[in-house]
Write a structure and sequence with these properties.
This protein is of the alpha+beta class. It has helices at residues 3-17, 23-37, 73-81, 133-150; strands at 43-50, 53-61, 67-69, 85-87, 105-113, 116-125. 36% of the residues lie in helices and 27% in strands.
Length: 157
């Protein structure tokens, strides 16, 4: 996808989220929009921070790991470091958690609302090095849009 593709997705996301008061409905549409817009992705979803672990939230794809401890795998690392993880080959990532044996690369973006970590967006692909810097920046911007919409809520999902 190009930068302009991500700008269009951002406009679509804003239209979906505008005036929606239900956090779960917003999160579900966010995930569905991204999953259906991206090629060569076999899993896309949210993990929500609950205490010291990430708990599976809305997603598209095969059944997934339901709980991930902070610091474990790509998702737990992104959450504990509060920094996006773009992994070209998940088999090279120390401590990678295999939820789907078909996944080869992964992009995980921390979700920050009111300066607090609330979860992560996780995207898997069956192809090596699927995610580019353009993808990373575009997805980070979409996550920021989603998190701004969530900032008026007392609790994320």
């Amino acid at each position: 996808m190009t930068g302009s593709d991500y700008e269009l997705l951002d406009s679509q996301l804003r239209a979906l989220l505008d005036d929606e008061s239900d956090a779960l409905a917003s999160a579900s549409n966010f995930v569905a929009l991204l999953y259906n817009a991206m090629d060569d992705v076999n899993w896309l979803g949210l993990y929500v921070l609950r205490g010291n672990e990430l708990v599976l939230g809305p997603f598209q794809g095969q059944p997934a790991c339901m709980r991930i401890k902070l610091g474990d795998g790509v998702c737990g690392t992104a959450a504990s470091m509060r920094r996006t993880q773009r992994v070209a080959d998940v088999h090279e990532f120390p401590g990678h958690i295999v939820c789907d044996a078909n996944s080869r690369s992964e992009l995980v973006v921390p979700l920050i609302v009111k300066e607090e970590l609330v979860g992560v967006l996780d995207i898997d692909s069956p192809s090596l090095a699927r995610f580019s810097e353009t993808d990373q920046l575009g997805i980070e911007n979409l996550c920021a849009t989603f998190c701004r919409q969530q900032s008026s809520r007392e609790r994320f999902i």
